[in-house]
Write a structure and sequence with these properties.
Radius of gyration: 22 Å
Number of helices: 12
Distance between the termini: 23 Å
Number of strands: 0
Oligomer: single chain
Shape: elongated
Strand content: under 5%
Structural class: mainly alpha
Largest sheet: none
Length: 289
């Protein structure tokens, strides 16, 4: 098991896209994990016309990105806000992937009435306006608890994966290999967890990364809309505050808008590169090594 993990890790490191994506993603994860230990929870200058929305000050590490509407360090805010974004997005991606994987495998493998019921529910979820639904649910709970928030974000995002996995399972189920395994008398649990799931491993990994990406957009969007309890360090709340203070028109708050936006874009770029790299690694037809 360890050798196989190291083998895939070596393949990811050889691929330029997955290597870049892994480095970027791990950088964000490390910042989120060590932010409270290495950096202060806040760094604020005494509020004054000179310290509010101060442009970047290269001579001071904490003021490297400038200050916000109350003289607070933008850099420290981004570091403190990374923890919430990383935890919620990874949890939401995990929940979405597990639910979609479970429903897709059970539906495709069992078939019959179970398949009809599960796919009927999936089709209903797919036709729902997911953004509106999530905004309504988040407005009702108004919580910043990462586990509850991750569950809210994964309410509808599992449906597409469930249908895609069902299609893959149907192909595997009807293959000659499955017939041989059934003739040998292997249990259903063995076939699912030792044959089907490993076959779909790279496919599931790519969709997990895409689900994490969607969760980042959703969480920052909810904070931007003001649906969730106000968190001044959240990247979405920072963008909303910057736009409220005229950043879109080139005002003093422009840096308060640019750097949180770059933080979101950078994390997204890392995830996208990682998913592209895994796709190339798992597809022998486009692998170049």
């Amino acid at each position: 098991m360890v050798n196989k993990f190291l083998y895939y890790l070596e393949l990811m490191w050889k691929n330029k896209k997955s290597r870049a994506g892994l480095i970027i993603t791990m950088f964000y994860v490390i910042i989120a994990a060590l932010g409270d230990l290495v950096f202060p929870k806040s760094y604020t200058l005494p509020p004054s016309p000179q310290t509010i929305f101060m442009p970047p000050q290269p001579g001071n590490f904490y003021l490297l990105f400038g200050t916000g509407p109350f003289g607070e360090s933008i850099l420290i805010q981004l570091i403190q806000g990374a923890k919430s974004v990383i935890i919620v997005s990874f949890l939401a991606g995990l929940l979405s992937t597990l639910i979609g994987m479970a429903i897709g495998i059970v539906s495709g493998y069992l078939g019959g009435i179970v398949d009809n019921i599960l796919m009927g529910i999936t089709d209903i979820v797919l036709t729902m306006p997911s953004l509106v639904f999530i905004v309504v649910i988040a407005s009702v709970f108004r919580t910043s608890n990462p586990f509850i928030l991750a569950a809210i974000l994964s309410i509808t995002s599992w449906a597409g994966l469930a249908r895609a996995i069902r299609s893959q399972v149907l192909v595997i189920k009807n293959s000659p290999t499955m017939e041989v395994l059934k003739v040998l008398g292997l249990t259903r649990r063995y076939i699912i967890f030792r044959e089907i799931v490993p076959t779909l491993g790279s496919y599931i990994a790519i969709h997990y990364i895409l689900n994490v990406e969607s969760a980042v957009y959703a969480e920052t969007g909810l904070y931007y809309l003001g649906v969730l309890p106000y968190n001044p360090n959240n990247w979405g709340a920072m963008i909303q505050e910057a736009l409220s203070d005229g950043a879109a028109f080139g005002g003093k708050a422009v840096f308060y808008f640019i750097f949180p936006t770059l933080a979101v874009v950078g994390f997204m770029a890392g995830l996208i590169l990682l998913s592209y790299g895994i796709d190339e690694i798992s597809n022998p037809r486009i692998r170049t090594y």
